[in-house]
Every structure is written in structure tokens, then in C-alpha cells.
DNA sequence: AACTCGGGGTA
DNA sequence: TACCCAGAGTT
């Protein structure tokens, strides 16, 4: 164990008690609410997740309420938060806890780790915060704080780095107050030891911080570069009948946005104009059975919807038809479906100009 | 071990 | 533009 450990932990917790934000999940030890907050905050900023947490707690105060909700409702409430597998796993886990565990969450790391959507970080967070177990969390904040303070240049996104930082955090944790220690180191990373231009001159740790002393703060933590994003080309076919009915489809299978809804999609390898689009077999399949009167491009400039690993170059085509299909819905009801932000943005713009 | 999964904030 | 965010699951 590093000699500094007791001192580091004590100082860190003192800072936390003076500087922590008041957040709703800090007023409870209820494992359901801790679990809910931790799932929502995975790869998500506190300020982005906060309104979703409040919505979920209000709609589903107990794990049974979440378990009894339709999956579509859960996805709709999750809309806009991203990484939708979290919502699907959240719902599945609520059902298991509610129906197979009598509504009681596992009270230790090993048991929590078996739940869908709960990995090393989340299991440690719940075990420490709700059950006072000495399980150290390692999130992006922890990587940053520890890599700088101890001068560790092992990349954080390879297995060796993850193991090294987990071991170190586990050695540093205050075993008398593990939940407070975990939240303290994360809060310190989020609020003080920030990625860019941290205020090291006023940092409580600067005398003992390796990176500050060596003037290497900007170089840590080390992360292997991600590969460049892919470009994709989406053509959404916005069917519109005379009485404003449209067609939505639910995304199935693998890939982005599983189980969310969208307009019929024709994906191409490049940006398409109308005549090229009409020549595709996919267009043939789409238009079968539709009485198409006219097709027009809604957005002259393609929308570039940016995900972390792909850019979606998107065109919305207004497809006017004379006879609506059985499966159609009023376009005004699209807002009741869980849709990607890309679709939600189109719909609101569509109604502004309508 | 590498890849995939969102959307938004920040410099 | 590039990087990051209270990471996990799949290939």
C-alpha cells in the first residue's frame, strides 16, 4: 500500500465534505435509487443525467413500479439520454429484482455484478454507497486523479491499465467510509482535477502531486487513440397521407437505437438525389403498396447527426400518398414514441414550418 | 483485446 | 475540431 494512502484519503474526504454538490441521490441509501443513478450516470455528465433521474424516481418510485412498466414507456422516458441498452438492461434487471429477488437488491459486489447492465464500476458503487462495503470505484474521474497524483502513464483503456488503477484505488479506499471515499474522489475529478486546465495552483494536493511537480498534468491520463468515425448516409421516408398519417418502424436487431422508432429508412453508401434514390431496390421495397403522389426533399442541407463513433448524413424525404396504409399513425402522435434525437429534432422542425 | 453503443458540454 | 463524461456488453 502506498505510504500516502491514509493522508490522501483523509484530505480528499475533507475536501469533499466542504465542496460536494447537493444531489438527490446523495440523500438516500436506497439501493434502488443508487442503482438508478449509477446506471444513468454511466458515460453521462451529472447535469445531463439529473433531470432524467428526477423523472424516473417520480414515475417509478419503487423497483416494482419500474418492473411493471412497459418497455416502450421506459425507453420513452430515457429518450435523449443515449446508450439505450442501459434503459433496456435497467428494465430487465428491475423485473428480475422484483420478481425473482422479492424486490431486494443483492447487498454485495459479487451479487450486484450479476445484474444486467451492472459492471465493475456500478457494482462497486452500489456496494460501497448502499451497503458500506469497501469496494473501490474506478471511473473516468478516478483514472484522471490517480494517474496525475501518482504519475501513472499506463493507458487507461487497456486491460493492464484498468487492473493497475483498480488495485491502486482498492488500496487507497477508506474502509471506514468507502461510499464517501468513492464519491469524494469522483467529485474531486469532476470538479477540480478536470481534464483541461485544472487549477493546480490552488489544489490541495499540489505539493504531493507527481504530475504537477513534473509539469506533466496535461499529459495524463494516457489514453489510446480511438479510430476515426464512420460516415453513414440515411434517407428517412416521411410518409404523409392527406389526413396527416405517417409510418413508423421499430429498429430491431443489432446496431444503434435498438427498439427505438423511426421513419422507414433507406441507408445508402453516399448522399442520394431523388432519381438515384428511386432506382434502388430498397426504394422499390419501401414503396410497394403505397400510392405515391409526390416526393420532395425536406432539408436542402443534409443533417449531420454526430454520434461518438459515426456521423449520420441524413436526408428527410416527404412522401405524399393518396391512400394510407393500415399500420399508419397520425404524425402528431410520433411524440408519443421513443425516437432518436435525430427524429425528434426533425419532427419539431417539421411542425414549426407546417 | 478490440469494437460498439448517444448525446451533449467544453476548450 | 477533439476530447470527455459516476462504463458495459458483445465479438
Automatic annotation (TrEMBL):
GO MF annotations for this entry?
A: 4 iron, 4 sulfur cluster binding; 8-oxo-7,8-dihydroguanine DNA N-glycosylase activity; adenine/guanine mispair binding; metal ion binding; oxidized purine DNA binding; purine-specific mismatch base pair DNA N-glycosylase activity
| Domain HhH-GPD stretches | 40-191
Keyword Chloroplast part of the UniProt annotation: no
Q: How is the cofactor bound?
A: Binds 1 [4Fe-4S] cluster.
Q: Name one GO biological process term.
A: base-excision repair
What does the record give as cofactor? [4Fe-4S] cluster
Residue stretches spanning the membrane: none
Which Enzyme Commission numbers does its entry carry? Answer: 3.2.2.31
**Superkingdom of source:** Bacteria
According to its UniProt record, which reaction does this protein catalyse?
A: Hydrolyzes free adenine bases from 7,8-dihydro-8-oxoguanine:adenine mismatched double-stranded DNA, leaving an apurinic site
Assigned keywords, A-Z = 4Fe-4S, DNA damage, DNA repair, Glycosidase, Hydrolase, Iron, Iron-sulfur, Metal-binding
Report the leader peptide range: none
In the UniProt record, does the keyword 4Fe-4S occur? yes
- Per its UniProt record, what NCBIfam families does this chain match? mutY
Protein family membership: Belongs to the Nth/MutY family.
Q: Which PANTHER family match?
A: ADENINE DNA GLYCOSYLASE
Query: What's this protein's function?
Result: Adenine glycosylase active on G-A mispairs. MutY also corrects error-prone DNA synthesis past GO lesions which are due to the oxidatively damaged form of guanine: 7,8-dihydro-8-oxoguanine (8-oxo-dGTP).
The protein in question is named Adenine DNA glycosylase
- Source organism per UniProt: Aequorivita lipolytica
Q: Give the taxonomic lineage as stored in the record.
A: Bacteria, Pseudomonadati, Bacteroidota, Flavobacteriia, Flavobacteriales
Amino acid at each position: 500500500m502506498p505510504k500516502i494512502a491514509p493522508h490522501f484519503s483523509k484530505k480528499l474526504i475533507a475536501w469533499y465534505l466542504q465542496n460536494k454538490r447537493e444531489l438527490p441521490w446523495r440523500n438516500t441509501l436506497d439501493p434502488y435509487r443508487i442503482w438508478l443513478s449509477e446506471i444513468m450516470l454511466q458515460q453521462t455528465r451529472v447535469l445531463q443525467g439529473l433531470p432524467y433521474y428526477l423523472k424516473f424516481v417520480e414515475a417509478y418510485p419503487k423497483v416494482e413500479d419500474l418492473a411493471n412498466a412497459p418497455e416502450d414507456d421506459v425507453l420513452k422516458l430515457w429518450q435523449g439520454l443515449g446508450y439505450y441498452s442501459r434503459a433496456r438492461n435497467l428494465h430487465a434487471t428491475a423485473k428480475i429484482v422484483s420478481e425473482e429477488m422479492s424486490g431486494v437488491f443483492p447487498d454485495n459486489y459479487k451479487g450486484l455484478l450479476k445484474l444486467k447492465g451492472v459492471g465493475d464500476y456500478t457494482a462497486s458503487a452500489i456496494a460501497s454507497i448502499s451497503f458500506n462495503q469497501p469496494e473501490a470505484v474506478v471511473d473516468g474521474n478516478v483514472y484522471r486523479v490517480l494517474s496525475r497524483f501518482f504519475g501513472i502513464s499506463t493507458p487507461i483503456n487497456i486491460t493492464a491499465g484498468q487492473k493497475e488503477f483498480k488495485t491502486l484505488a482498492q488500496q487507497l479506499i477508506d474502509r471506514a467510509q468507502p461510499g464517501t471515499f468513492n464519491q469524494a474522489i469522483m467529485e474531486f475529478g469532476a470538479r477540480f482535477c478536470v481534464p483541461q486546465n485544472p487549477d493546480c495552483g490552488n489544489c490541495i494536493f499540489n505539493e504531493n502531486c507527481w504530475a504537477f511537480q513534473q509539469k506533466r498534468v496535461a499529459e495524463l491520463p494516457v489514453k489510446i487513440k480511438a479510430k476515426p468515425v464512420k460516415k453513414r448516409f440515411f434517407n428517412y421516408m416521411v410518409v404523409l397521407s392527406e389526413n396527416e398519417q405517417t409510418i413508423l418502424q421499430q429498429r430491431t436487431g443489432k446496431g444503434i437505437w435498438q427498439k427505438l422508432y423511426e421513419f422507414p429508412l433507406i441507408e445508402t453508401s453516399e448522399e442520394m438525389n431523388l432519381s438515384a434514390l428511386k432506382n434502388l431496390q430498397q426504394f422499390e421495397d419501401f414503396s410497394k403498396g403505397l400510392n405515391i403522389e409526390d416526393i420532395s426533399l425536406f432539408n436542402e442541407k443534409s443533417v449531420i447527426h454526430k454520434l461518438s463513433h459515426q456521423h449520420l448524413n441524413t436526408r428527410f424525404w416527404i412522401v405524399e400518398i393518396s391512400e394510407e396504409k393500415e399500420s399508419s399513425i397520425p404524425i402528431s402522435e410520433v411524440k408519443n414514441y421513443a425516437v432518436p434525437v435525430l427524429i425528434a429534432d426533425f419532427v419539431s422542425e417539421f411542425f414549426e414550418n407546417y
